[in-house]
Amino acid sequence: xxxxxxxxxxxxxxxxxxxxxxxxxxxxxxxxxxxxxxxxxxxxxxxxxxxxxxxxxxxxxxxxxxxxxxxxxxxxxxxxxxxxxxxxxxxxxxxxxxxxxxxxxxxxxxxxxxxxxxxxxxxxxxxxxxxxxxxxxxxxxxxxxxxxxxxxxxxxxxxxxxxxxxxxxxxxxxxxxxxxxxxxxxxxxxxxxxxxxxxxxxxxxxxxxxxxxxxxxxxxxxxxxxxxxxxxxxxxxxxxxxxxxxxxxxxxxxxxxxxxxxxxxxxxxxxxxxxxxxxxxxxxxxxxxxxxxxxxxxxxxxxxxxxxxxxxxxxxxxxxxxxxxxxxxxxxxxxxxxxxxxxxxxxxxxxx
Length: 352
Hints:
Layout (H helix, E strand, L loop, with lengths): L4 E9 L8 E7 L5 E7 L8 E3 L6 E6 L5 E6 L6 E8 L5 E7 L2 E6 L4 E6 L11 E4 L15 E6 L5 E6 L4 E7 L6 E8 L6 E6 L5 E6 L4 E8 L4 E9 L10 E7 L5 E7 L3 E6 L8 E7 L5 E6 L5 E6 L4 E7 L6 E8 L3 E6 L5
Antiparallel strand pairs: 1-2, 1-28, 2-3, 4-5, 5-6, 6-7, 8-9, 9-10, 10-11, 12-13, 13-14, 14-15, 16-17, 17-18, 18-19, 20-21, 21-22, 22-23, 24-25, 25-26, 26-27
């Protein structure tokens, strides 16, 4: 990477829809522009990615297939290089993963479960030691006949994991064992029936959680108690303006580093919603929506500086970046990189 690099980005994509697998790109420190450096298509449908949390140059990818799997990649160079074989997760169609306390956790949409895979000394995942299965359903006969885990994340304290389940209209909470690093079921928080929760994000203070719903275009605000592992819904806010035309399927939610702004991607409406957060964190207000720069924004991500927002537009096949107005929180389109069937984008920290 040259002197002007602000680090590196990695883009996941659906190979079954023409994607190129995992694309690596340098990030320009001045403009935020992405320049591709290489790609790997050795794993089918690497739709979501996560980086090692211990500083090692290892990237993890789900394989969102019926016989779901995880793979690790060495990302020291410009092209990701697979480490070892893909490892089955004992779950179907994993859509998300996180690295937690020496383990990779996957949210398996097809089977409604969370798989726990330990990492060896090289950071490569081994076979699952546990599969946490969700139970339940929701009122939507097309989407909620059974559980559909869509995302799993650690809370900022590292003591808990939260799994968002679209099929059960709930968030499943697990306690991370401080000795082994493995999560164990702790509780379930019910949200409004039929909302179809998809992803969540934490407020920087750690005291609030914002759950983005897919089956209705709303955001559910929750209080989070990290001492007891309790999640309490306190409100719901639209992420679309009144009278917005056509169906919309929100996909991803991001909170600014300073806790002043929240952004949500709306597929169908093809927009990014901008919401202002008050000091309490409990009363988000929709400020505006802006075009996502393409079609079907599946993912949003902030760069490490927090000054730019990136949208992975799946159906138009691009990652578009935006400069964020620090006074209004409104993103302004600055450029894009072609990335067929793009599904997510993540960032390393800039080199020091």
